[in-house]
Write a structure and sequence with these properties.
This protein has ten helices and 20 strands. The chain is α/β, with parallel strands linked by helices and 388 residues long. Bound molecules: zinc ion (ZN).
């Protein structure tokens, strides 16, 4: 990898805006960033002139099941290579591979496979998203709010089963989605916190009080807010009411315009502010593929007009890509730096890796996107490796 200087019309770090910016990449990291006028091109370095473009950090997806015809539950290097390559075309330069509720054995096999892939993922010169770790979505969820997760594999939360998952993950477990009101959730939340995981309330029928109690126990996030949750009511605000009124809690949002109506998205953004919403894809294997039939874990979903449903017509994940999510949020009237933050700095902060990912700063990985004036991708670098 050569040394490269990107000269962009502006850079959103995203905490600050630098106009007429220079970003110097050496190997896989950002060596310098600032006004281009204050930089000299190192000998032998290539300069990319993109003065009509905006540079932003690569997107981070903390809730994604698959893409390009493959699902992370396959757990093979080939499947994960295919997924990470495909999403990089949409600006996702890192992700947390998200499991779906399945049998314990099948989940363990998938976790071991993903961990094995992570251990060798950098032995490549191809641009692809980095797998930052694993998000367990299920099996410790509510049967009443399961969405399309198969009910026969939903289990009561068990710290013992979780410890088997953690062992299989070999240090790569990052997020646990759990329904905090279910019997056995409290010790499981404690075990997840002790292991350093982000505890995320999701697929949950929790009341307001139960959700607040989970936050007091250390739950810091909520999984695809509004979807697969006890509905909000003014006399029974539930988990949604708790999330909306607890500034410190991160809210995942699937901003495809199908999972959550515009007004509900606006309400969430107003209540939480730019710093506490993280845009996710909840993307399935069908992402980047034509309409048709696809697998999510072990069950089939039908994709029509880009919308995924199971045999009963229940919404099943999405085919949303994060570049599209960015444009959807900006179309709601959210300023671009705030929208960028929800795809970069916020997920990085949630995972505690904001010095390495999700930020254009010295020493961070060179995960960089160029956006044109319509917010379409005009360039992608993943750890310094250019797409195309
Ligand atoms: Zn879900």
């Amino acid at each position: 990898m050569a040394t490269l200087l990107i000269h962009a019309g502006r850079a959103l770090t995203p905490a600050t805006e630098i106009s007429d910016a220079g970003i110097l990449i050496r190997e896989d990291a950002i060596e310098a960033i600032g006004p281009r006028s204050g930089m000299t091109l190192p000998a032998g370095a290539q300069e990319i002139r993109a003065t009509d473009k905006t540079a932003v950090p690569g997107f981070i997806d903390v809730h994604i099941h698959g893409a390009g015809g493959h699902d992370v539950m396959e757990g093979t290097n080939a499947a994960l290579r295919s997924i990470t390559r495909r999403v990089s075309e949409y600006g996702t330069t890192s992700l947390v591979a998200t499991t779906v509720t399945a049998s314990t054995d099948q989940t363990l096999r998938a976790i071991e496979g993903i961990a094995g892939y992570i251990a060798q993922q950098h032995e490549t010169e191809e641009p692809r998203a980095e797998v930052l770790g694993i998000h367990f979505e299920g099996p410790f969820i509510s049967k009443d709010r399961r969405g399309v997760h198969p009910s026969q594999w939903i289990q009561l939360p068990s710290a013992e089963t979780l410890s088997r998952f953690l062992k299989a993950a070999a240090g790569n477990a990052r997020i646990l989605t759990i329904a905090p009101e279910v019997l056995g959730a409290a010790p499981c939340i404690d075990a997840a916190r002790e292991a350093g995981l982000v505890v995320s309330m999701g697929h949950t029928d929790a009341s307001y009080e139960q959700a607040r109690a989970a936050m007091a126990r250390g739950a810091r996030s909520a999984t695809h807010v509004y979807n697969a949750m006890r509905p909000f009511s003014h006399r029974d605000p539930g988990v949604i009411g708790a999330v909306l009124t607890s500034p410190e809690v991160n809210a995942e949002l699937i901003a495809d315009g199908v999972h959550v109506e515009e007004a509900a998205m606006k309400l969430l953004l107003l209540a939480k502010g730019a710093a506490h919403v993280t845009l996710v894809s909840d993307g399935l294997s069908a992402t980047g593929m034509p309409d048709g039939k696809y697998m999510l874990g072990e069950f089939e979903v039908t994709v029509s007009g880009g919308v995924c449903r199971n045999a009963d017509g229940v919404l099943a994940g999405s085919t949303l890509t994060l570049d599209h999510a960015l444009r959807n949020i900006v179309a709601l009237g959210i300023p671009l730096p705030d929208a960028v933050r929800m795809l970069t700095l916020n997920p990085a902060s949630l995972l505690g890796i904001e010095f390495k990912k999700g930020s254009l700063r010295v020493g961070a990985d060179a995960d960089i996107l160029l956006l044109d004036e319509n917010l379409h991708l005009a360039g992608v670098w993943a750890r310094g490796v250019a797409l195309n």
